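User: quick one, fold this
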Amino acid sequence: MKKQFPLSASNHQPARVIEQIKNDVRKYLKRERKKTLPEGVDFWDFHCKIGMGDGVPEPKHVEELTAAIDQAAASQCASVYIEILATPGFRKAKGDS
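Assistant:
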């Protein structure tokens, strides 16, 4: 998913627009996690980037996306760019670092 979300809409309150963006991100992650895993893969990992306005997207962890969306809204950006790419993930043994 590579998408530019506007943070304002003429027919919605700003708080509702932000909640819609967060909901779209959650739905996308849920849909990607449901896909069948390739042979030998343990889980789906996600490489995420988020950019405020026309700024350069910064890498973020999946769990930091909602906080970054809130931060973009608080900084009065016109839009937020979100990039989420699903990649195969492999678990490490507890003894490995």
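User: anything notable?
Assistant: The helical segments are 14-34, 65-74.
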